[in-house]
Amino acid sequence: MKRKWLELSALLLPGATIIAIFITMMVAMVRYSFAPGGPSAIGDGFTFEHYGRFLGNPFYWGYLADSLRISLYCTLLTAVIGYIIAYAMYRSGPLVRLIVGAVLIIQFFTAYVIRTYAVMLIIGKTGLINTLLLSFHLVDQPVRILFTEVGVAIGLVMVSVPFMVFPILASLQRISRNVEMAAASLGATPMRIFWTVIFPLSLPGVAAGIVIVYLFELTSYIVPGLLGGGYSDMIANFIYNKAMRSFEYSFAAAAAVVTLLLSALIVFTLNSLFDRLTRYERAR
Amino acid sequence: MTAHAPRHIVIRLIGAILIMLLILPIFILVGVSLNAGVEQTFPPQGLSLRWYENLANRSGFIEAGRLTLGLAVGSSIVSVLASLCAAVALARYTFPGRAFVLTLLLSPLIVPQVVVGMGFLITLSALGVFNSLFSLSLLHLTITLPFTVRVVVAALSGMPASLEQAAQSLGARPLRAFFEITIPQIGPSLVAAGVFAFVTSFENFTASQFLVWDRMTLPVAIYTSIQTENDPTAAALSSLIVVIVVVLIAIFHRFVIKHMFASS
Amino acid sequence: MAAVELEDIRLSYGGLEVLKGVSLRLASSEFAAILGPSGCGKTSLLRIIGGFSDYKGSLRIDGRDVAGEPPHRRNIGIVFQDYALFPHKTVAENIGYGLRMRSIAKPRLDERVSGLVDLLKLQGLEQRYPAHLSGGQKQRVAIARALAIEPKMLLLDEPLSALDKKLREEMQVELRQIQKKVGITTLFVTHDQEEALALADTIVIMTEGRIRQIGTPSDVYLRPADEFVAGFVGQSNLFNAEVMKIEGATITARLDGGEVVTLNSKELVKTGNRITFCVRPERFCLSRPDTQMNDANIFEGRVDHAVFLGSHWQLGVTMNGSRKIKVQASEGRSEGETVRLLWQPDNAIVLSA
């Protein structure tokens, strides 16, 4: 009996150690966010000054607000595009699914930095869009898309779509084929079958995708960093700048803690909301 | 196949257009990298491989590449082994708080990258640790573990316990039964876990950039190059990586496909 | 061959008592079945004997207490419900696995494997992988693999439940033959009472973690120990009655509905006792105009439903407007028809009061 506990502890040790380190880092960060001190200093003591500073100044918490706003409409856009792609895949043969799946997986496994850079090359001054616009004489000068919020939005959507497609596709594939045939036999047109049967049944996948994507876009660094060029910083950029440019570690930590709490709140809220909306799915 | 293909032609067409828009950037990337001149234009003005050849001279990239590769290989191996042990513990032993342990093991997944990076930065700075290799190793272990745990736990619980028990009843000692019977069964999943871990570590940027003191990782180097340099160098390096990724996927596609649908 | 003794075995799982004091004795070469509904604890018992579960109480195999002995040293052959064939090994490799563990030399190993292949009629399948075998074939490979190690006993967990009816009946016969031939002590677990009746020398009826009766198939069928056994093994019709008169072995009793019946039973009852007795569906005769009445009991009723099952008819008859009786008859009747059911006093099974 004693041996079993020994074995168990030994097995859990490596994983537990790694997680312990992680949790220690997180807890320490929370601790230091309450530490007084300005640039390059992490003092002893306890203070709310950093939180006060962050939450009190609209210039600061504005980054959070902007991030929430941008991610919101980008996530919705991603959801629509992702759903269309997933549904098109669902209605196609195995070969098409394989090819499209391969394309998405390649996207999935290519670093965000690279993918975002590639978007830069499309929306930049000498990029594809401007080249086309200029050569068709639709504009006289290159249009500025890069380094604006629009550019960031385009980037966010393009980078997030693969995350949306897979959960939706999985959820579509879980729908029993017979359900559609039953609906048709009862007189429903294809359009109605989609809106009253297929779409509702695929919602859990959409919900899962939305939660993943929203959180990802909210805390995204690379896209606003490269495509925003400082003009459209989001919360992640803010935290980084405060930490690595001004060395205001504790202040940055406070902002990070607020972001973490907000993320947790959002995940919890979205999950509860979606759970209630898709209650029928779990009766099986 | 569900309903008749012709009826869905509209949606499939729209889907096709969207997918092509999605791959477009990669094509542009490759195209830009082949520019003969220094301008990052598309279509490329003149074709040349000079920027690829140039990479060989960029010791900064090569160094960063080595570091990143080492981190990726190291953390995937350690993560897979650690998750294998943890998965066995969770699957074959009953103890209070099992669900909680699993949640803990997966916890880094729900923390935003920037927060993870911040946490590591501030703690290590407070402790006076300014060694990039050490810090990055810890970071990458933390980041890759939840991915491997998810895959390996799913694989192990998908395998009926009766297989190992049958081997034991036939005289195989528990350890032997594990290696001869269980491991071959979950082998493909272990490979998939390794691949996921490798990719996650290799491409990690947001958290890693906080720990760049004396050495930097490849994604960080690329990012810096994009912001500071004005020629297709970064494009060449990026295209090279994409090609490598495509090759890797082609080799490992069997293992990876079925895990793509795991929900968090 | 091993003799097995279980004494007061108890097992709790997460607050739930799965086994509540099970005692059982198996003689060498005995073929016993543990029969019971799902969740009665029979599989847990099997796992305990195999060494895969902790337990309280005593388990002795061949007179030796095996507490703490790990499974790989018990030398017990196990056939799992899902067969548990190693998917990455061929049929021959599966069967030879236990022999490999015992470091048997290759020539001997091959010889033994081919002997079992012949015994279990698996010729031609030696190089196949489990994925390419039918259910029946997998079953036989699992049995061969367990027998290969020349175990001191064989445990089977619902061995035939995954097979279709015809195959199941064939395998039942084969299993019996093999067991007799090899003479191995065998314990198998099932919820299918027909299977238990067909295969076993001894049947152990279990429910809710306890043993209700141990006996031969005819013991258990003709002399069920209580209501549960009567209802579980075979079909039954249960009646409550009050004893009015006793004359030797003949009991006169009045049913709750007022009918008076005569029963022959050795059970000790007293006048005024309330008893429960059971009459099997096949013991009812449908009366015809020329039927001899003798001292048979007569129930009158209307036919609720009549189902033709090929070899016999299954009728549901309502007596006195409320009580429902299941009847198995060799001829049919139409729904709504009035029938008279005759049954002999000897065919009443009085259950312990």
Task: Give a verbal description of the structure.
- The complex is a heterotrimer of chains A (about 280), B (about 260) and C (about 350).
- The longest helix of chain A has about 35 residues.
- The two termini of chain A are about 40 Å apart.
- Chain A has one domain: MetI-like fold.
- In chain A, helix 1 packs across helix 12.
- Helix content of chain A is about 75%, strand content about 0%.
- Chain A is built from 12 helices and no strands.
- Chain B is mainly alpha-helical.
- Chain B has 10 helices and no strands.
- Helices cover about 70% and strands about 0% of the residues of chain B.
- A 6-stranded mixed sheet of chain C has the order 6-7-8-3-9-10, with helices on both faces.
- In chain C, helix 2 packs across helix 3.
- The mean pLDDT of chain C is about 90.
- Classes of the chains: A mainly alpha (about 280), B mainly alpha (about 260), C alpha+beta (about 350).
- The interface between A and B is large, with 96 and 92 residues.
Throw out a few tags for this protein:
heterotrimer; A: 284 residues; mainly alpha; MetI-like fold; 12 helices; 77% helix; B: 264 residues; 10 helices; 72% helix; globular
Order of helices and strands of chain B: HHHHHHHHHH
Number of helices of chain A: 12
Quickly give the CATH architecture of chain A.
Orthogonal Bundle
Largest interface: A-B, 96 and 92 residues
Report the sheet-strand fraction of chain B: under 5%
Q: What best-fitting shape of chain A do the alpha-carbon axes yield?
A: globular
Total discrete domains of chain A:
1
User: What is the CATH class of chain B?
Assistant: Mainly Alpha
Tally of helical segments of chain B: 10
